């Protein structure tokens, strides 16, 4: 006999978990399929995680609506940033902004990914209408009324809608032959955690140089930041092969006047960076969200926020369909969701590609254009406010 649900979500990462938790308030029976969710049961309080995300105002409000924001704040591991500083090494381009100048208390928050996952997981565990399965999905079929998802333990889950939230290499997307437009950014991201000589002072910093982009995301400890160093693949390999002292010296050479000397406090991880855009976000009884639908360069820290915006709009769409007694799995009822999310993702993909292209290399014309462009923005309060509002999703 099939196990019956309203919605099955394949993928229990940040976006998948958030979607399940938000949907639990719609009086639906939900299944989450993920083999690694149990790792979020405990949160090591003495260890800082390697990966962290910049959370904008829209995502913060979504966390509040779900009901985990107070728990996140009480963990003492949420760091607001009140200032941004962007500059070009060996160039004249620069941009800075402070939240107080625009009447905001902050410009966003930096939170370790495993902290967000922990509190979402705890929320899901306490929801009677969320069932978690730790077995891998191996097959899915569809008929007019249902999707049938088979797990590795032979269990068959039946639902009105399947949500693919299983990341950039989505099994759901591949199993349904949804093609993807891809472009290699020709960058790998080296990610780690560093202790900086100077306190971060709640400032998110980013430096562009001919071979890449270095970002410091301030963490809840005043001298610790998440480091995201995007650079050419061969240079990323070199950076990870350096000794800790050699790595720190190279980092100091490029950024030392802003943050001082850095000490590694976590191992270095490397991730290839690609732009991805699924040709379809929806099919009959299927929706793709988050990295399963799109991936972008991390240079503006908007990737996970795009995913949370997918989640929030999908939950709102499903709620409206239920209230009007419409089928939540029909393509015609999900078209508006797809249109809006494809539009926003395309805008962000285009913006990230343009910024990366403009700062790639040391061409004199490019250097002149980016200096003029960034300094015009930096000297225009109106332009800066509009950019900040867009980034904060206000």
From TrEMBL:
One of its GO terms (molecular function) is 2-polyprenylphenol 6-hydroxylase activity. Residues 5-323 form the FAD-binding domain. It holds the Pfam family FAD_binding_3. Its cofactor is FAD. Keywords: FAD, Flavoprotein, Monooxygenase, Oxidoreductase. Signal peptide: none annotated. The keyword Oxidoreductase applies. GO terms for cellular component: ubiquinone biosynthesis complex. The keyword Flavoprotein applies. Pathway: Cofactor biosynthesis; ubiquinone biosynthesis. GO terms for biological process: ubiquinone biosynthetic process. PROSITE patterns: UBIH (PS01304). Belongs to the UbiH/COQ6 family. Component of the Ubi complex metabolon, which regroups five ubiquinone biosynthesis proteins (UbiE, UbiF, UbiG, UbiH and UbiI) and two accessory factors (UbiK and the lipid-binding protein UbiJ). This is 2-octaprenylphenol hydroxylase. It comes from Gilliamella intestini.
